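To whoever is on call:

I kicked off a structure prediction for a single chain this morning and the downstream step that reads the tokens threw a length-mismatch warning. I double-checked the sequence; it's 152 residues and nothing unusual in it as far as I can see. Pasting both halves so you can look.
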Amino acid sequence: MASERMGSVVSVSLTAAGTADRESDVLTWREDIRFSGRQALALGILAEVMNAWLGPYEVLSAFTAVPFPRKKDERCRERPVRVPQVVTVAGRLESGALVTEHHSGVVADKESPATELTVWGTNGTLRYDFERRELAWAPGGAASRFSRSRRT
């Protein structure tokens, strides 16, 4: 994603926070390994986006959590949740840019849910809001302001 306008990508932050797994007693199909396999949240589809836009990871580490470890299935049987409800990823892209990702399906408040990618380059910052389909750009400099454009 290096360009004259953006410069070299230095670091990247991805946040994907939602409420899909928030109910503490109902097992959703996304948390049930019988239906979703080991697909955690939107991690896979967002990894494809990151790879297409910024290139592959050179190295990464991931940490997972299951804050609600037992839930009831469709027959009201208590079952263990074996699919992560929270995932944090840290790594370095082949370009050298450092990346942090935070994925959560257990956000408690209604204001936090968001999926947003921020890319910091040597010449400016780019933000993309996946829900609003808004792209925002701030050029480098002390008085930088984001200008927004809607994508459809």
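Update from on-call: the warning came from a stale cache, not from the record. Cleared it. Sanity check on the structure: The CA atoms of residues 32 and 40 lie 10 Å apart.
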